[in-house]
Amino acid sequence: MSDELKLVFDEPPQRKKVPKHLADFSPAERKEFAASFGLPGYRASQVATHYFSHLSNDPSTWSDIPAEMRQSIADQLTPKLINLVRSITCDNGMTRKDLWKLHDGVLVESVLMRYTDRVTVCISSQAGCGMNCPFCATGQAGLTRNLSAGEITEQIVAAARACADGELPGGATRLSNIVFMGMGEPLANYNAVMRSVRNITDPNPDGLGISARSVTVSTVGLVNGIEKLTEEGISVTLAVSLHTPDDELRDSLVPINSRWKVKEVLAAADAYEKKTGRRYSIEYAMIRDINDQSWRSDLLGRLLKNRNAHVNLIPLNPTPGSKWTASRPQDEAEFVRILESYGVPVTVRDTRGREIDGACGQLAAAEKTRED
């Protein structure tokens, strides 16, 4: 692997070492993790059952472990990695954004959304992002560090627990969908993200037992990451944040395009679709007078008309003080019409969270400003 490609997967420097957590390891490795504390391997299995099957973070309820050992085992195998700073809601409580503080003071966000037919959590895989997309609040903040698999999984388990405990309107329910579309570029934190995906999809008690078809992993187009994902043998939904079909504009909107051009990204996505049989998604933020012209819709339609892809148009959720804003409704409608004329499946995303700094990174940025 060349130095340029290797950098995509390198771990940025950390200020403090993240405590190891049961969720950082495969089921077999968890027993070794328990042994490092002088515990028999079956204790790891017991704790995994409480954590993944019962979503329990209260060791006092772990009745199959001696009472005097419960807290110390919990501290060793499931140390508290994320602490809730605050939650804000909108959509009559059906959308909730949680701001989490990590052990080193870093802030990340997750968003829990209840719909009529599903409950989705959008989670962060990095603190900040190194992709530097100019219209994205997280991208403009830069990359602080990668999250560990434990920190990523904790966001998901917290969301599943909130659902089970009936914290959203409508009563107790089950978390059904996970999208890696929060802060960060998931494929730039590849190993931790894949461990988290397996934590999601492994059956109870080793994982949450959620179908891979209900997991979406997004990328701005890291071709080497897509190629690695293709070989994993796990059929998550791949979402490619394309945002424009032409290389000239994409070089500035999505700077990694200077390394992998649009046709290379689509070819990698096609290979993923061929291997997994899973249609992929093209994410396209609609930005007024930047990428919403009809000729770009026409070019996108011609690129995708013979591909097993679905376009997800996203009205831009503008960040405070930004020059970027959402497309006009008529331009959005024309964009949709042209894509449909090519037979390309297209939907316009239900934009939740506008009232609560819904775009990734906005709440963390606001909290940091307040702390400063």
Describe the structure.
The chain has 372 residues and is α/β, with parallel strands linked by helices. The protein has two domains: 20-77, DNA polymerase, domain 1; 82-371, TIM Barrel (Alpha-Beta Barrel), CATH 3.20.20. It is 37% helix and 18% strand. The protein is built from 13 helices and twelve strands. The strands form two sheets. Strands 1-2-3-4-7-8-9-10-11-12 form a ten-stranded mixed sheet, sandwiched between helices. Strands 5-6 form a two-stranded antiparallel sheet. Strand 11, helix 12 (329-341) and strand 12 (346-348) form a beta-alpha-beta unit. Helix 11 runs parallel beside helix 12 (329-341).
Summarize, please.
The chain contains 13 helices and twelve strands.
Q: Would you list the SSEs in sequence order as H and E?
A: HHHHEEEEEHEHEHEHEHHEHEHEH
Second-tier CATH architecture of the largest domain: Alpha-Beta Barrel
Residue runs with pLDDT of under 50 for 5 or more positions: 1-5
Reading off the top of the CATH hierarchy, the class of the largest domain is best stated as: Alpha Beta
| CA-based gyration radius | 21 Å
Query: Can you give the helix content as a percent range?
Result: 25-40%
Domain module count: 2
Beta-strand residue percentage: 15-25%
In CATH, what is the homologous superfamily of the largest domain? Aldolase class I
The profile of the biggest β sheet is:
10 strands, mixed
| Structure class | alpha/beta
Mean pLDDT: 92
Report how far the terminal alpha carbons are from each other. 41 Å
Report the CATH topology name of the largest domain.
TIM Barrel
Number of helices: 13
Strand order across the biggest sheet?
A: 1-2-3-4-7-8-9-10-11-12
**Basic shape:** elongated
Structure summary, number of beta strands: 12
